[in-house]
Amino acid sequence: MRLKNLIFSICAILLISSCTSYKYVPYFQDLKQDSIVTEQINNYSPLTLQPGDLLGVHVASLNREADAVFNYNLIRPSSVAGNTTGTGEINGSVAQNVIVGYLIDNSGNIYLPTLGSIKLSGLTLLQAKTALEVKLSQALKSPVVEIRLQNFKISVIGDVKNPGLFNIANEKININEALALAGDMNTTGIRKSVHLVREVNGERQYIPIDMTSKNVFTSQYYYLKNNDVIYVTPNRDRALASDSYFQKLSLLFSALTIIVVYLSR
Question: Which residue of 18, 129, 130, 205 sits 20 to 30 Å from the alpha carbon of 102, by its own alpha carbon?
Answer without folding.
Answer: 205
